[in-house]
Structures are given as structure tokens and as C-alpha cells.
Amino acid sequence: MAESWQQRAEAKHNAILAAIPEQWRITNPPIEEQVDVTGSYVHQYLSEREIEITETTANEIVKMTTTGKWKAEEVTRAFCHRAALAHQLLSCLLEVFFDAAVADAKFQDEYFAEHKKPLGPLHGLPISLKDQFHVKDVETTMGYVGWIGTFEGKSGTGKEKVFESEMVRELRNLGAVLYCKTAVPHTLMTGETNNHITGYTLNPKNRRLTAGGSSGGEGALIGLKGSPVGFGTDIGGSIRIPAAFNGLYGIRPSVGRLPYEGMANSMDGQNSILSVVGPLATSVASLRLVIKALLSQQPWLYDPLVHEIPWRTSQEDEISGLISKGGRLCFGVLGSDGQVNPLPPVRRAVDEVVQALEAQGHEVIPWDPPPHKTLLDESVKALAYDGGVDVRAALGLSGEPPVEQVAFYANLDKEFTASEIAATNVKIRQLKKEYMDYWNNTAKVSKTGRPVDAVIMPLAPFPAARPGRYGYYGYSTVVNVLDYTSVVLPVTNVNRKIDDADEGYSPLNEVDKGVFESYDPEIFEGAHVSVQLVGRRLQEEKLLAIAEYVGGLIGK
Amino acid sequence: MAESWQQRAEAKHNAILAAIPEQWRITNPPIEEQVDVTGSYVHQYLSEREIEITETTANEIVKMTTTGKWKAEEVTRAFCHRAALAHQLLSCLLEVFFDAAVADAKFQDEYFAEHKKPLGPLHGLPISLKDQFHVKDVETTMGYVGWIGTFEGKSGTGKEKVFESEMVRELRNLGAVLYCKTAVPHTLMTGETNNHITGYTLNPKNRRLTAGGSSGGEGALIGLKGSPVGFGTDIGGSIRIPAAFNGLYGIRPSVGRLPYEGMANSMDGQNSILSVVGPLATSVASLRLVIKALLSQQPWLYDPLVHEIPWRTSQEDEISGLISKGGRLCFGVLGSDGQVNPLPPVRRAVDEVVQALEAQGHEVIPWDPPPHKTLLDESVKALAYDGGVDVRAALGLSGEPPVEQVAFYANLDKEFTASEIAATNVKIRQLKKEYMDYWNNTAKVSKTGRPVDAVIMPLAPFPAARPGRYGYYGYSTVVNVLDYTSVVLPVTNVNRKIDDADEGYSPLNEVDKGVFESYDPEIFEGAHVSVQLVGRRLQEEKLLAIAEYVGGLIGK
């Protein structure tokens, strides 16, 4: 008798656990017994040396590994151990290949010993990858039971466990050590991470809450410092949501900056709003490190959608030069998009950033752009073009039902026509142009005489979502529709003593009501609170420079 | 009684002629009486000074106008006169606004007199525009009778005769003088220029042949030197075809290099293969001049689809540096795409370029890429997505039938679904990747150790098409599917004494047969013969540098 999808999911679930060495196995306490598993809780299972290594940022790690001060093997083993703990506490991994990683690390150590130089700028740096990257010797399931044992749902392609995504090739060239792939919600179309293989991925800082999604496995893993830097993808917030919910820095680059070539995806070929790939990490310097390294590989020669734009130090220098000479930056601030108001801790985070900047003499002006709702209406269309055909086909391979968070996409029933798609494309272009003109026109009101340098806005209306209650994507998705650069900036943590729920709040609409009602300071206590810094299209260097500066001001 | 479409077309036709000053009116001789109207034929109507001015390339003109040596007004009047002659002989203009141009030129002369400096790098340079650009005070019909008196077919938009396309704004900033808009085939979807307003646009060098399309008015006008440089658009060859058929240089830049914002278009919102805008001119230096000038306007701040890639002098310097040090370039050569063989004069042009390069010690290797047919199959789909909805709507406004050249698009009847479009997008991306890999791999066989620098290939199988016989677009369209940079290089002219028809040729297929049978050395005598130099995506500076060098070698 053929296995049921439940049996296949369970077998894969168990295989992931089985890949964790016996000596690293721990007991997972009930959530309410141990809400926060970061810091001292996870430290109990680690040696001093492992803690030292895993609590070093990626940019600092490579200073040690590329100079031979730290061995790649030791670094790799430390992160493998901490990742194993993270998975057992949070359900964040879909593929575990520690043995291959240790073998790669040993090879690197030998290379360094022989040549007295590193393999590349990422020599000995463990990097985690969302389970859309193809890596040899392991599967890519993207959380679909029906993809187990296949290449993107297809059998006999010759690519199974052999083919590698372009970025994987580049990361290996650069000396990175790959050791695990992280959990996603099947379909990728939600801000929570849930699938029938790993189950629900928890937030390490507050396990009552989601780790975010769709790069939620990355968020949880890096949030617990089981990885120094990892790559996710973002079509409506999927890099930035897990970054924000886990107190991390994360960047959504514009389309065509980093290579997506050869990665698995949902609704591939929907070309109105493209998913992008980008890193999450505990420091801006770590994000810069990996982006700069990847661009040194000239990805435009290997991915037809990448533009030939090398790393532009001049963009960074402009910002740092300005600041070091006492010059002023000008920021826009969007407190609310008028659709769903942010909850009290998010409001506080926005205010804290504004105050920190104003205290340094920078200018912050209200951001009152063309209505975000109009932009979001188009994004809803773009993501529903295929009427659920792709998602149902993937789920149908095993017969598994959609998890509740993505039922919307599985239940769509009408495909858009070519004319409807063309009309959406035209509308999106027009709205981009209007937004661009608004941005340009801020030069007329700013004291700098320049258009605003970046916009401070919430990334989500909540610090994180409670399971099953991620009800509004407007703040993150507007960036995808505009194809802007956005960097998530961790700001603070929920403090039940000051982040009271709003008394007598009268909701704007049903969605706003749902978000309002999901807030409970007791439940959210301690959760990370972040904002995003939004820049224009293809302004990655500039936005990273600004995020690093602002992060420094607020002590992050 | 409402006017018929014929009456409306005729009224517009007459209004264009009426805009030509009385003293510039001439009699148009029958085609067979005067096949070639270039050179001495057109000179009879021009003064020595007018000939001097209009036979100066754009890059040389601005040396005079930006230094005050030549007055903008005199230059403008000379080109207006020659453009008026061109239109009467070739039917190449859809909008004539000489008075506005002279007024602008006078203003520029006053500006120069007062400030002792030019308005910008294009000060006093007349530039012609394909009738997709919106220019204040005149219409944009794109050859559709139903668009007369409207804004893109719509009334009461408030944009009629007021709105200007983004590139028009930039050209004015730069000091260009706009004076006419040029004929297109309605729908833009053919390599011949024909519509019910202007009628059929003739080739000035050989009026038995087409001037090309869809930027055919540009080709004819610049071919007769009624404009020093003009802008067309290209989705399947529409810049390069008129450039090639008129002995001009023309560049198809990659998508996102130059601003298309605010231009009229066909099937707008079809996002799989995008139309691009680019210049045609009598010298490479003229193309460089206008592109470099436009990029100095930072179009990426005003057009959401333009990438922030400033003019890269380093790309040019690499080529010129290499050549000046006696270094070698490596070219691929594609004699035939295996679908339709080029006619004898085109074969000869390819051979002459190869020989000229080899004589200088450059390397030319066979180009044997993944089959072009597979790429072209996808382009056929992309251009048929909407099942003719857009084209029928535009024709339906007036009730005019399609001209025979575009009947295919008007007669499509099935819209693609979202899933079918997505599958096409995925396939195109995969084919781009395969082609890219092929290109990269030429580094393994070239003597330079680098991938080939450019590929020499036909732009069309014929030197020009005979009316109604443009049967094959594969050579030009493959570049659009790949989004590559391509520069048309004029090489030679048909010589009936050496370009015999192939005796006993056995055609590859029906299309090949049609092309073969359309050739008659007597009819084609004197026609321009060109090739294209194809480079990778976004390599405009490099390809212009190469085209200038190769053009120099063959004496063009």
C-alpha cells in the first residue's frame, strides 16, 4: 500500500532529527515552561568556546577564519551544534548536512595550511539557506510533502540531489560553509512558517509567537544564533518579517541585484512582482560582507536577471562622509498607512528611531505618499494571477491539505487573462512613477535640499504575530510593489510595563480590529520590535550605510 | 453625418502636408522615374549651406552649436527644410512642428548670447522622434486614425497636447530642438511602415523597397539626412531594421537603460519582452552623444524601470585600450540561423566584416549557440498574449481595417492564461541562461581567453524588404528575447554585378522560399546592406566602442 502523505511527512520529519548527532539531542520543554530559549537557556548546552564562536558576528568571524586565527572546522562544528539545539527547540530546519559541512571545513583548513591564504572572503563562514536553494546531496522540499525525493516535484530529471543553485556555486567559491537549510511555510505565501514536515516554527525569544515567514526558519535559527548569516527570499516581506520578529538586520534588495537563478520557487513565472533573495544577520556589517562578496563573483554573467551593478563604495562613502562632516540626513516617517495602525510597541519603536535621529540634528519629515492601499490592491492581484494552479499542483502531488495560513492561495479559482495581467502591469508602473515623483518632490520641503534619504516605517503592525493571526501584510508588501530597497532595523523589545494596549481603541476596519485584538502585553512580553528603513530602488549600499548608522545611535 | 475613417485619415494626411511651408513644396516624381532620391537628387532643392549643415553628423553639429559657431536657428531651419523634402518624397512624418522648433532654437541662441554658454550638451541639435513620444502642442496617433484628436485613444484626459514623455523632458533639458515626429505602422508590429494616414514609407536609397519598421519614418528621414539623430523603439527589431535598411547606425539598448516612461505603446503591460527606446544616426559618435547626455539626466530618478547605471567610460576605454596596444578582440560569427538563409548581399556583408577583422589580426570563431528557433517560438507567444485585444480596440475606435502587414495581430483570437504566461516567462529565463552559459564557455576556445566580445550576425535575411514581403524576423528578434545589446553596422550596398541570386537554391522551408524568391538584384540595386554586432545584456558602451572601431575598418 502506498504511504499516506502523513507517513511521508513523518518519515522526513524524523530523518531531519536523525541527522542530529546523538550527543546533541536535548529535551524540548513545553512552551509555557520556557517561553524564551535564547541566552542562558541555550547556553546550558554549549561550551564557553562554542558560545564565543556562535555569538560572534559574521563579519568578525571572517576576520578570524581568513587569517587562520580560527579554524573553519571548529567554527563549523560550533554552529552545527547550536543549529541542532535551535531545531529541537523551534522546528526550524528542513535539511541537516553537518557531516558535509565539517568535511568542507576540513578541506578549507588544509587549503589554508598549504597556501597560507583563505579560499575567499567568506572562508570558513557557516551560512544557512532557506529551503529554496538547491544544494547537492540533499533535497529541496520547500515544505511540500509531495516534493520529497523529487526535484521541485518532478522525478527523473537528473537534477535530484546534484543540481546547485547559482548562488550556492558562488558562495562555495567564496569559501562559505553550507550546513543546513531552513524551514518555510509550504507555498511560501505567509508570514508564519508552518508545513506538515517541520510543523510550526517558533520564535526563540518568545515561543508563543511566530518566528515569521516565509524565511521563518532563517529567522528562528539566526535569532537563536545557530547561524551567523543566512539567505532568505522576499516577495511580500519574507526576509524582513523573520528579521524583524527575531531582532535581526535583514535586507530586501531590489530585483536584479543578487542571483535568484536556479532556485525553487512558488508561482514561478509571475513577473509582475518578483521575489528577491537577500541576507539576514545580527549586524549590518554581516549583510554587507556577503552582498559585497557575492557581487565580486559578477553574478550578472551567470544569472540573466542580475544587473551589472558592482558594489558601490561611493554610495556608502557619501553617507559616512556626510555624517562625519556633521551633515544632516533627511528621513520621512510613516507612523501608519491608514489601513492598519501599528500596535503600541511598534509605535514606540518608530518614535524611538525618530527621537534618536532628531537628537543628532537630522531632519525627520512626515511621509504622506500616494495611498499605499492602491499599491497593495495590485499586489493582491499579482499574487493571485494563476488562480492557485501552482499551489494546488504542488499540494496535490501528495494529497496534503494546505496549512491554514495559506488556504487562501489554494482556494483561489480563477486565472487572470493576459489583458488583465497587462492592465495590472501598467497600473503598477504608473503607481511606481507617482511614488517616485512624490519622493523627488520632497527635495522641495527638506532642509537638506535633497529628496529624503530613507523612510522610517513599521515592517508589520505587530512585533510578531501570534500563531494563525498574521492578518496584514501592507507595510512589508508595499516595498515589493515599488521594488524599493528596505533594511530591517531591530529597535527594542516589548515591555508590558510601558506597552499597554490602547484603551477604547476604535478600529479602522475588520483587519485593523483583528490586529488590535491580537495584542496582549503579557503574551508579547520580551518580543523583538523592529522598523524598516526604506530607500529607493537599487540603493542597497546607501541603505545599509544608513541602517548601520541608525543602529549605532539606538545601540543595536 | 459622422466622418468616415477614410475622411479622418485624409484630413490628417493633408494637415501634415499643410504644415510644410509653401516655399518648400516640391513635386514627388513616380518611383520608377526616380528610385534613389538621396544625394544629388535631394541636393537640387537645398542651398550649399543647408547641405553642409544637414550632412554634418550630430556629434559634429554640437561642436559648432555648443560653442556658438553655428546658430541653433540656422541648423534647425536647414533640417526642417530637408525633413520637409524627405516627407514629400517618402511619406515619413506624422507630426510637423517646425514653427515651435524655430522658436525654441531662437530662444537657445538668445540664451547662448546672454550666458556665453550652451543650454546643455545637445544645445541646438535637432532630434526627430518616432510617433510614440508625446510632445506638447501636437498629437500622438501612432498611425491609428482613431487616435486623432485623443490622448492614446482616450478623450478628456487633460493630457491631450499637453503631456510630454519623460525622455522629451530630458532632451529639452539637454538643449535638443524637437521639430517632427516620424511615421510608424499602426500597431508597431511590422518591419515595414504603413498606416492609413501617411501611407507607405519608402526607402530613400531605393524607393522600390521599404524604409523598414516600425521606426521606419526615422529610418527614411535620417537616411535622407532630414535629421541628424532620432529615437525609435525596438521590440523585435524596430530600431535596427530601419537603421540597417537605410545605411545607418542604430542601437537596441537593453531594457532599463533609457527612459520609456510616458510613451505611447502597443500591448502595453506585456512584460515578457519589453520594447526599448534607442537612437539611430549616421555615426556611432552621434549615438554615444545622445545616450551619454540622457544618462547625465539620471533617468533612473524619473522612470521606475531604468536601472542606475551611469555612462561607463571604463567599458569604452577597455576596448580602445586593448586595440591601441595591439590586443586582439574575439568575435563570433553567425552566417545563418538555420531557419532562413540570408540573401547573397547580406552574406557578402557578413564576410566583408569578418575579413576586415581578420586582416587586423582579430579572432573570429563560429557562433553555434542553442537553437534560435526555440527562443523565437517564445517571442511569438509573448507578442500574442492578448489575442489581439489591444490592436483591435485601437483599430476599432475608427473602424479602420489593419494594413496587410499587421493583419496577423488583429486576427488573433485567444488570450493566454496566467499559467501559460508564467510558463513562457520561465522558459524564456531558462533559454537566456543557456545562451549565457554558451557565451561564457567561448572563453574556453577563444585565443583571447575571454568570452567573445561581440557576435557578427545578419539583422535581417534581406538588405531591405519589398513592400508586403517582410517574411522573417528571427535575426532581429532573438536579440529582444535575450535582452542583449545590439548595434547595427552599415557595411555595403547591393551590387547587381556581384550579388547574383543563388542558382538552383533549394529552400529550407516556406518562409525561406519566400525570402529567396523576393530577391532580384535589379530591384535591390544600390540598397544598403548592414549587419548587427550583438553584445551581452547592458553592454551599450562596449558595443558602441566596438561598432565604431569596426565601422572605421570598413570605411563607414
From TrEMBL, chains A, B:
It catalyses: a monocarboxylic acid amide + H2O = a monocarboxylate + NH4(+). The active site is at residues 130, 214, 238. Keywords: Hydrolase. Residues 74-544 form the Amidase domain. It comes from the Eukaryota. Pfam families: Amidase. Its EC number is 3.5.1.4. GO terms for molecular function: amidase activity. Signal peptide: none annotated. Coiled coil: none annotated. It is an enzyme of class 3 (hydrolase). Belongs to the amidase family. This is amidase. It comes from Pleomassaria siparia CBS 279.74.
